[in-house]
């Protein structure tokens, strides 16, 4: 999917840079984002992307936008590219419903699935503290929430179900324990061990998790506990079903596992919107590759879809605003390979002819692009240009060969925020000597 692309030969680079200079809004401060809020208008779904999972400014600018959307436009919850059980604990904390965890730092430090830095970072502590304080003066049923959309948390979701049924429905506990025991031999390697085993025994534990979901759905109307906890246990059961499918698909390669994951995120978003009521409004945080419409990239040619595309199709483009983020140079947190220790990498100058390079040449400054200003340019709509995407696994030495997604930017997003130079975010899971609040906290968030 991701290949190195410079500006296509049919595009006049000088003309494109001139076009950016003409239409881009300079971002000298966060106050300069007002055109974006005007563009959002009455939309009910705003998706805020990121070009990496390890950049300080992506988190702080998204936090600023998020707070204004909650305060000024009545957005009710945040849904992120994160695990449901971990995010649900944070949700309960910021709503003042968790008596055990006394601080956002403590809740976020418990996010221990690799890559831990995605949510266990000081930038998120600052946002969670703000949400906690904001919610104090709000009636319980109106408090801002925080939820995870992802599919990875099979074992954590199973454990959450078991804890819930132990207290609420011991009669259904046997079904949950049978499902858990089926997966237990593969827990050490998480999905990889189960994926390998499924090559020899297809549908290894499929029946067990399907039966568990049916059991919980049939009994949920009888549960008399907190309605949000009932919703949560159902969601954990759906994760068990979809994670089992995902891990089986993962071993086969191709687009199927990607599509399963993004469809799960889209379905979870649908469930959350339905749970929050007819006029629900949500802010989504996820990587650009999930929120930027896949149909405007080479992902579509590879048979891949994504969350932003599915939301536009289901809810209509006027109701969905997709906001991409990118940067030209700086530093970033990532691992050298899957499961490797996190480290701060230098983010090299963007590849020549990429969107990031062109934006840099248009001013060496932070900029906001509203895509409706560029949509009439036929040349831009016909020729994809490379757009940087850094994952949790990263090595700048090989960036030019695997970190650029050919994209028609005016169709991929509704708005794009270019931050010319960015820096690595501040993880919580560092050695004891370095485990202290950074100077940036909570300023700029």
Automatic annotation (TrEMBL):
InterPro entries referenced in this protein's UniProt entry, alphabetically: Emycin_Estase, Hydrolase/PRTase-associated, UCP036794_erythomycin
Highest taxon listed in the record's lineage: Bacteria
Pfam family, one: Erythro_esteras
Protein name, per record: Erythromycin esterase family protein
């Amino acid at each position: 999917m991701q290949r190195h692309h410079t500006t296509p030969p049919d595009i006049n680079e000088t003309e494109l840079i001139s076009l950016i200079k003409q239409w881009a809004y300079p971002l000298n401060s966060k106050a300069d984002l007002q055109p974006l809020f005007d563009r959002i208008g009455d939309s009910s779904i705003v998706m805020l992307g990121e070009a990496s999972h390890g950049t300080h400014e992506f988190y702080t600018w998204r936090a600023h936008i998020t707070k204004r959307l909650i305060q000024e436009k009545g957005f009710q919850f945040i849904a992120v590219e994160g695990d449901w059980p971990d995010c649900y604990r944070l949700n309960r904390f910021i709503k003042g419903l968790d008596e055990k965890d006394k601080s956002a730092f403590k809740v976020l430090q418990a996010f221990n699935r690799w890559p831990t830095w995605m949510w266990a970072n000081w930038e998120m502590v600052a946002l969670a503290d703000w949400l906690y304080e904001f919610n104090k003066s709000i009636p319980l049923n109106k408090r801002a929430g925080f939820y995870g959309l992802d599919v990875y948390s099979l074992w954590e979701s199973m454990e959450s179900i078991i804890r819930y049924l132990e207290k609420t429905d011991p009669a259904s506990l046997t079904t949950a324990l049978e499902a858990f025991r089926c997966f237990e031999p593969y827990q050490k390697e998480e999905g990889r061990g189960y994926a390998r085993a499924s090559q020899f025994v297809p549908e290894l534990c499929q029946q067990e998790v399907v039966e568990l979901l049916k059991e919980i759905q049939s009994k949920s109307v009888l549960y008399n506990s907190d309605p949000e906890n009932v919703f949560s246990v159902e969601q954990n059961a759906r994760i068990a079903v979809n994670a089992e499918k995902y891990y089986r698909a993962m071993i086969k390669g191709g687009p199927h596992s990607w599509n399963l994951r993004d469809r799960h995120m889209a379905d979870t978003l649908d469930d959350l919107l339905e749970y929050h009521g007819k006029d629900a409004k949500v802010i989504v945080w996820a990587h650009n590759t999930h929120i930027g419409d896949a149909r405007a990239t080479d992902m579509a040619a590879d048979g891949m879809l994504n969350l932003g595309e599915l939301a536009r199709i289901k809810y209509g483009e006027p109701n969905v605003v997709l906001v991409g983020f990118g940067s030209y140079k700086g530093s970033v947190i990532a691992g050298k390979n899957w499961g490797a220790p996190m480290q701060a990498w230098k983010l090299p100058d963007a590849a020549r002819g990429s969107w990031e390079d062109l934006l840099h040449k248009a001013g060496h400054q932070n900029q906001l692009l509203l895509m409706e200003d560029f949509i009439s340019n036929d040349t831009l709509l016909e020729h994809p240009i490379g757009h940087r995407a850094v994952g949790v696994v990263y090595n700048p030495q090989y960036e030019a060969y695997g970190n650029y997604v050919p994209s028609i930017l005016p169709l991929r997003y509704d708005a794009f925020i270019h931050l010319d130079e960015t820096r690595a975010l501040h993880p919580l899971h560092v050695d004891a000597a370095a485990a202290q609040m950074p100077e940036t906290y909570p300023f700029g968030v």
